[in-house]
Amino acid sequence: MPATTEPRRPDNHDSSFSLLRRFGMASLLAFVVVAALLGYVFRVLSVDNLINDYQSQHVNHARIIANETWDEHFGPLIRETAGLPNLELATNSHIPRIYLFVQKLLEGTSIFKIKVYDLKGRTVYSSDLSQIGQDKSGNAGVIAALQGHSSSQLVHHDQLSTFEGELTDRDMVESYIPRHDPDTGQVTGVFEIYRDATEVLKQIRQREFKLVGSVIALLALLYLTVFSIVKRAQGRLVAQSLARQRAQEALAESEERWKFALEGAGDGVWDRNLQTGQVIFSKRYKSMYGFTDDELENRSEPWDARVHPDDLPRVIAERETYFRGSTPSYVSERRMHCKDGSWKWILSRGMVVSRDAQGKPLRMIGTHSDITERHKHEQALQLSSTVLHTMDEAVTVTDASNTIISVNPAFTVVTGYDSCDVIGKTPSLLASGTHDDAFYQQMWQGVNSPGGWHGEIRNRRKSGQLYVEWLSIKRVCDAQGVLTNYVAVFSDISERKASEERMHHLAHYDVLTELPNRALLGDRLSQAVAVAQREQQHLALMFIDLDKFKPVNDTLGHPVGDQLLQAVAARLKQCVLRDSDTVARIGGDEFVVMLLDVASVQDAMVVATKIRNALEQPFVLGAHTVSISSSLGIAIYPEHGDTEAVLLKNADTAMYYAKDSGRNRVQIFRDGLNAI
Predict the structure, then answer these.
(1) What is the DSSP letter of 431?
(2) How many other CB atoms sit within 10 Å of the CB of residue 65?
(3) CATH-assigned architecture of domain 395-495
């Protein structure tokens, strides 16, 4: 028989060796690239860290020198030269003394120059005296420092300084430091120093070489280790190759079935024969609907047997659209019936894996994912959105940096700003300018507390109109407690505030004359007595009663009488000029004047006489000219009473004495008047 030979099987050893060789070349190239990249990254990080540390030390050194020299030398120099032109700055008589002081201060340091700029960006002092008077208002470092920010730059020899815009003649670091007034916090000038950086750059280069060398050596060792492991695994790969080939044949049929399950969410898997209706369900699919592993075995089941009737027309339409090729994939949301009778929201995804010669689908594989909770969450979000957009209160949502990301329609109604006007900006857009920094600091302390902040605040509409709002601000944090948003809810309470103010005015002011009434007078008198007692001051209380007022009412009528009372109130206010004093009407034709911090009885008499004379002058009231007079009684604290009640009683007594004594006169209270 002629000799026969078996077909030659692939040499797994040769293929494995080829694989190892290719791996070695590819991995070596990869390690070289990674070594270069890591070396560069570590070099940059280390160098940047060293430079940052050096610049930070330089800035701190600059602050120390500025603190030692500013109050005595440079601060006064800036103030003295504020009004001088640039060309005369170098002629200041203090510069030679400052120059000697600075030279002595910098002895033994690597700092070779100091410069000082005023608020106009002018060089009012420089260790290089020829630079005094230069205008550096366009210098980026000076600009930043005048805005309150320190800046620093490492500049190499013959490199262009971005601050100065000039080539340097050495390696150096230049730093600009703002100088703040300790009382106001305002920037009063800029301090700049230059330091030689030759030694620092030398250290940087040494560190670069060490880091790059260390990274390359470490990666080389790692490469050798990995290569050794791969080579050792070579023998195992040869032995496993045949077993893998056998397993591939066994897995070929099931691979297609489970492939989509891996591509999908990994939930319940179904495999349906579209011709016979036979379907295979995974274990997870069965448990999702409450079935045990031995239920729903491979079976023929109508495709839509468990789909909710309300969802069925849409589900069929979506499937037919996919079969026609109108959509690249099959995705459908629907409610599915469970074993216990409940319904679950399901996301069904699938793909046709087999078609006949005419393109008709034969087999389809897909997954079911339980989205019931997600659907509930989406419904809750939809409800929240509906509430947000229909509520009367304005709502503003910002991110953690307080940038506005959302507002509701009520926001536009209240403020006049559309969402496009404010999104991307901060709520400070609404600030009215009527609140100080302390108010906002206290507000943010409340915002960052567990309960948030709520209160009244005055803001400004887009039209420029001020309004009062009731504002509530709360923080929103994620599950880890990290701040994600701020939510502000507010409503316009301007009308309510105005109404409250009107009610307050009616309760404390006389409707006819707009003067304080008896209630407000009592409050002010109580406070005035307390202040006078504490500060050991005097105050005067005057009771004023109009003489011959009743005949005016009787003969000319009450409207004319009301005009007369208003005219009397106006003359009384003209006689009492200090805002701290009070003119009040306590009823009928009786008025009270309270003078705070009077030096003597004579001062009170001067005002009382002025009032009496003013009220003697005729009053022209439309077609009528009316002449009246007044009787005044005066009580002085503490001589005539150390309580409100006693002062009121004694001033009233003095007034009645003046009226009984002939009217149109002033009477100071004294002991014995009570008997009259």
Answers:
(1) B
(2) 19
(3) 2-Layer Sandwich (3.30)
DSSP 554-588: HHH-HHHHHHHHHHHHHHHHHH---TTSEEEEEET
- The residue assigned the tokens 């000038």 is 189
Task: For 13-55, write each residue's pLDDT tens digit.
Answer: 555 556 556 666 766 676 667 666 665 665 555 556 656 666 6
Give the C-alpha separation, 610 to 584, whole Å: 17
Of 648, 644, 654, which Cα lies nearest the Cα of 674?
654
Residue 200 CA to residue 381 CA, distance in Å, equals 58
Phi, psi of 317 (to 5 degrees): -65, -40
Map tokens 């044949």 to a residue.
Answer: 249
Mean pLDDT calculated for residue range 627-642 = 93
The predicted-structure confidence for 314-345, as pLDDT tens digits, reads as follows: 999 999 999 888 888 899 999 999 989 899 89
C-alpha to C-alpha distance for 83 and 97, rounded to whole angstroms: 21
CATH number belonging to domain 264-376: 3.30.450.20
Q: How confident is the model at residue 164 (pLDDT cuts 50, 70, 90)?
A: confident
pLDDT confidence tier of residue 585, bands split at 50, 70 and 90: very high
Q: Taking 60 as the threshold, does the pLDDT of residue 434 lie above it?
A: yes
Burial (0-12, 13-18, 19+ Cβ within 10 Å), 515: buried
Mean pLDDT of 234-258: 61
The reply to whether the predicted model has a pTM over 0.90 is no
For domain 15-202, give the fold: Beta-Lactamase (3.30.450)
Mean pLDDT of the chain: 83
Structure tokens at 516: 């304080």
Closest CA to 669 of 608, 590, 584: 608
**All CATH 3.30.70.270 domain ranges in the chain, comma separated:** 504-675
504-675 fold = Alpha-Beta Plaits (3.30.70)
Cα 221–Cα 227–Cα 228 angle in degrees, nearest 5: 90
> Exposed (0-12), middle (13-18) or buried (19+): which is 633, by Cβ within 10 Å?
buried
Of residues 303 and 230, more confidently modeled: 303
Q: What is the DSSP string of 168-186?
A: -SS-EEEEEEEEE-TTT--
Inter-residue contact 510 to 517 (CB < 8 Å)? yes
Residue 57 has pLDDT above 80, yes or no: no
Contacts 24+ apart (CB under 8 A), 130-136: 132/89, 132/90, 132/95, 133/86, 133/87, 133/88, 133/89, 133/90, 134/86, 135/86
What is the rounded distance in angstroms from the CA atom of residue 385 to the CA atom of residue 408?
Answer: 9
Using alpha carbons, select from 124, 26, 31 the residue that is nearest to residue 69: 124
Which segments of the chain belong to CATH 3.30.450.20? 15-202, 264-376, 395-495
